[in-house]
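Protein 1 of 2
SEQ + STRUCT:
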Amino acid sequence: MRRLLAAVSVIVFLFSCNYTGGAGPGETGALQVNGRCAVFYTPGPGKQRQLKNDFGAKDYDGIAAANLQYMHEAEQFLAQKKVKIIRTSQYKLNFVKHNGEVFSIDLNRSKYAWEIFLFNGFDDPAKIDITNIEEEYRNANMEPRPGN
């Protein structure tokens, strides 16, 4: 019974919010984000291992392919709008607003997998629905502003 409880405790710990999944060097540290841009977060090797366990190896490839396709379509749209695109697998994002205020996001949580954050440089960044980039772009007030 103790072994079972110990095993359950380990499993709960591994799937807790701060599990790094054996994060690689490109996944740790903080990325500082300034000005109008889109941050494309894709899971690094450590996070991929975690997601394969969460989704099941059988379903993971299809989920990854669908997300990457939506991200590609979003990238094309944002390139037309001349939005700077930052690609990362780092867990910690520090968005620096025009007034100097910093908005931090920790992506080392199981709910984050393939994400796009739109940042206009003034407001808090917006985590968007990657399947609806045009509407999300409008909602995030991404049109260029003076000082951006």
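Protein 2 of 2
SEQ + STRUCT:
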Amino acid sequence: MSLIPGISRSKPKHRAADAVADLRDENRRLLTQLVGAHDYIAIQDQQLADVRAKRAEAEQVVVCIAADLEELTEQRDLLLAKVAALRAQLAPYLATDANANAITVPAAERDTTAFEDQATAPIDVRELRNRFTAGPVVSLHYSPQAADPAHIPAPAA
């Protein structure tokens, strides 16, 4: 305090009561964090217990499904063996039935009485063979004769 009445200090000195109040505020803040952390840990523990219970249930389901799969696989293998044995027994009967009920058709002859159905004479290609065996075949793709499909190159001399 100043001795002159009207003048006060701009910054009061640190007092022990102020430090105690600050420490109490800090203590309340830390206790609130502690309680919040305790609640968070309790929630996490509960979630962990739920996950572990679900995992145990899932493992039990997997074990049951694996046992069912093994049992069904054995049944399937037995049934496949039985089917193979029955097919072997049935094969002679199927062959006899197929032979007895075979569809036989006499050899067909083409009716060539109509003019458009008459067979054509074979084309004599010996002349073309003789022309092309004399030398290599040259592509006429870019030549003027390529436009004429009836053009046959002259024999090589």
